[in-house]
Structure formats: C-alpha cells, structure tokens
Design goal:
This protein has about 250 residues and is of the alpha+beta class. Among the domains are: about 70 residues; about 100 residues, Ribosomal Protein S5, domain 2 (2-Layer Sandwich), CATH 3.30.230. About 50% of the residues lie in helices and about 15% in strands. A five-stranded mixed beta sheet has the order 4-5-8-6-7. A three-stranded antiparallel beta sheet has the order 1-2-3, with no helix packed on it. α5 runs parallel beside α6.
Length: about 250
C-alpha cells in the first residue's frame, strides 16, 4: 500500500515538473514535442520525499489503529466489570461444587448397594410379597407373586378400574423400572380417596412389594423415586376464607 502511494506521488511530482518522464539514455522529459535534458536528481528527490511521506502515513495509521484497539479493550474490560458475568474464582467454585455433587451421588449409590446386600428376601410361605402403599387419603394393600402379568384392583382388572391412561401408567412404572413387566401378578385392595390417590397408593405398594420379593430391585426403584412416600395432601380450609388460601371478594364501598 505504501509503495503504491509513493509511486502515485512520484507520477504526480513528475507531472508537476513539466510532463511525463521516460527512460532512454538517462532520464528525459517529453514536453510539447521537444526533448529536454534529464534531471535525475530532481526525480530521485521527489521519489525519496514520496516514500518518506508514505512511511510517515503508514506509521500514523498503525499508531491510530493501535490506540483504537487499546481503547476498545479498556471499554470491554469496564463492561465486564459492570456486568453480572461470574469471575474466574466463581467459575472454579462452581466446578468444585459439581465435583462434590458427583462424589455424593457416587457415595449414595454405593450406600444403596451396601444396603441392598444387607437386605433379605421377605415373602410368605406361598412365595408372595405383601406391602402397603399410601397416597393422599388412599391406602392400598398389595400382594405380589410370580405370574403372567395379571393386575387386579379390588377384584377388577386394573385397566377397567382405572379408566385414565395416566393412572394405568402409574401402576406399571415399577415394572418398567425393574424390567419385569409381565413377570408378576398383582392383587391390590385400595380404599379411601379418589382414583388418582388410589393409583399412587397401588404404585407405592407394588414398588415396596418388588423390593421385598427381590432386594436387588431396590437401586433401580430408588433411582426413579418409586420408594418415596408422596406426602403431599390438600391443604385444609381456613376459617374466614373460601378455601385454604382464597379470600372472599373485597369491596371498598
């Protein structure tokens, strides 16, 4: 870029001296059809001045661009300090927290495996496992034994007793978690509450019965949260309110 600029200025300076220059025997200048004597010193001086000027401009452009880049960098640093970006220390602490959580998960898994080894099979004389499950106001007594996959609730097939597909899905979740779908028969007696609560109670009873039948199922059931009693219930109504939290409409006048 600097060389092209210098050559352009050289041509301009040559034109100001009286016209274009040609190289023959020395430097000669063509002007209005008459040849004149060459002036190489003038041409060399003009070339040096053009080169020096181009070099000065290149240095000035480089200095200006460097200054703009430094200003932009300082602005970015100021924006980062003002923003909510986490610092390097916070990022490292987050990584440590992830490692701690991973270690805790591994410890919990090992603990569950140790508990499983200590547990023994709990079945009656006929090889059936009995368990009780609860959910909301519902209670379910579940009997589980090896079979062809027949599930009954209160003497009816579970597909007839629970018309909602999501409720049927709740019943078979323990078998899906342990990959034993169709390998056990279930007879459940549910009472209290509605169909949703009874489905949850039967699910918990089946999970506990599977654990009693084979303690090796415990890690899989525990990982899916199927052995945890869901303690959520409807909050009771309060005096002076329409429901547990809802207040009657208030009128200023």
């Amino acid at each position: 870029m600097a060389i092209r600029t210098a050559m352009a200025r050289l041509r301009a300076s040559a034109g100001s001296l009286g016209g274009p220059w040609t190289k023959g025997e020395g430097w000669t200048r063509r002007s209005s059809g008459s040849a004149g004597e060459s002036d190489p010193e003038e041409v060399a001086r003009a070339a040096r001045e053009s080169m020096e000027q181009a070099e000065r401009e290149a240095k000035e452009n480089l200095r200006r661009e460097t200054q703009e880049a430094m200003e932009l960098l300082r602005q970015l640093e100021a924006d980062v300090e003002k923003s909510d970006f986490p610092s390097l220390e916070e990022i490292l602490e987050t990584d440590l927290d992830e490692e701690e959580r991973s270690l805790r998960r591994d410890e919990e898994k090992k603990k569950q495996e140790d508990i499983t080894k200590q547990r023994v099979r709990v079945v009656d004389d006929e090889g059936k496992a009995n368990a009780v499950g609860k959910r909301k106001a519902s209670v379910a007594n579940v009997v589980l034994w090896q079979g062809d996959g027949t599930y009954t609730v209160n003497g009816r097939r579970f597909s007839e007793y629970f018309p909602n597909f999501s409720q049927r899905e709740e019943i078979i979740k323990p078998f899906l978690a342990t990959s034993t779908l169709g390998q056990f028969n279930v007879s459940a007696t549910a009472r209290g509450g509605g169909l949703s609560g009874q489905a949850g109670a039967v699910r918990l009873g089946i999970s506990r019965a599977l654990q009693f039948y084979d303690p090796g199922f415990r890690p899989s059931l525990k990982a899916e949260g199927l052995l945890t009693r869901d303690a959520r219930v409807v909050e009771s109504k309060k005096t002076g309110k329409k429901k547990a939290r809802k207040s009657p409409q208030w009128s200023k006048r």
